[in-house]
Specification:
0% strand; cytoplasmic vesicle; 9 helices; Ferritin; Ist1; mainly alpha; nucleus
């Protein structure tokens, strides 16, 4: 006896609602158990049984991750209920619910032990969108129209939690209980090295590699390095602020000596601007008023 799609839609909607209620109950239960376990871990730390405490902390971390994954799935179920019309009225998977559908199909086999409703939800979505699509979603092989949520994959991972995260949990648990605790120095040293490397990366990304961000065109021909400006003048007159370096070279036509060099006003240089020769100052009401200093036939009487 075949079942009409209307009955299956009703079944899908009912199990979505049941799954949300079950998820909330499981989240609450696991959170309470984790709080209780934290007290036991604090006792292990007080008794200097750090190795046992670390093992228990790994279990707590997995439970915390699982609770976060359940919260994501609860959100996806809410989304499908809110947009249930897109499931009923459209034959193809709508982009607005694609990530939710694909993530639920992928997570269903992994959470069906605690939330049995997800098996029914997965079966109904498989009937709706086809078996090949559902199998590709469960294997996380889809790229379009969406992929499995990366955060959900990370929270449902079966890998052991990082050692650094374990130490941080122990530090917080001991701090909350008022118990002295010394974390593993080797693990914390790795954290310090990673933090220092991250700071260096951020420093470079923000243009902190010397003067490169101030002088983007400097450096070698490839433009990979920047040349910093020269330091303040040796007479020590710099005020301690930013020193822009020496003035730029003069424009063409001022001679090879730059400003005030040997070619200035003496007819040398590249044929540009030539300043006039300095003139003799006036004497006794205008005598020798416009005679150059270096005029070769300057009379002796004109100087008196």
């Amino acid at each position: 006896m075949s079942i009409s799609w209307g009955t299956q839609y009703a079944k899908l909607k009912t199990n979505l609602r049941l799954a949300i209620n079950r998820l909330k109950l499981v989240e609450k239960k696991k959170t309470e158990m984790a709080l209780k376990s934290r007290g036991e871990i604090a006792d292990f730390i007080a008794e200097h049984k750090e190795d046992r405490a670390r093992i228990r902390v790994e279990h707590i971390i997995r439970e915390d991750f699982l609770v976060e994954a359940y919260e994501l799935l609860e959100m996806y179920c809410d989304l499908l209920l809110a947009r249930f019309g897109l499931i009923q009225q459209m034959k193809q998977l709508d982009d607005g619910i694609a990530e939710a559908v694909i993530s639920i199909l992928w997570a269903a086999p992994r959470v069906a032990t605690d939330i049995s409703e997800f098996k029914i939800i997965s079966d109904q979505l498989t009937l709706k969108y086809g078996k090949p699509f559902a199998e590709a979603a469960r294997a996380n092989q889809l790229e379009f129209p969406a992929k499995v949520a990366p955060k959900l994959i990370a929270k449902l991972s079966v890998q052991a939690p990082p050692k650094l995260l374990v130490e941080r949990y122990l530090i917080e648990i001991a701090k909350s209980a008022g118990i002295p605790f010394t974390p593993d120095p080797n693990v914390m040293r790795e954290d310090e090295v990673a933090a220092a490397e991250q700071m260096l990366i951020d420093f470079k990304n923000q243009g902190g590699q010397g003067y490169g961000w101030m002088y983007p065109g400097g450096g070698n021909q490839g433009g990979n390095s920047a040349v910093p400006p020269p330091g303040p003048p040796p007479d020590g007159n710099a005020s301690g602020g930013y020193y822009p370096g020496p003035p730029p070279p003069p424009p063409g036509g001022f001679g090879s000596g730059g400003y005030g060099g040997p070619d200035y006003g003496l007819g040398g240089g590249s044929g540009g601007y030539k300043a006039p020769l300095p003139q003799m100052p006036t004497h006794n009401g205008g005598a020798a008023a416009n005679v150059p200093f270096n005029y070769p036939r300057l009379s002796q009487t004109a100087m008196t």
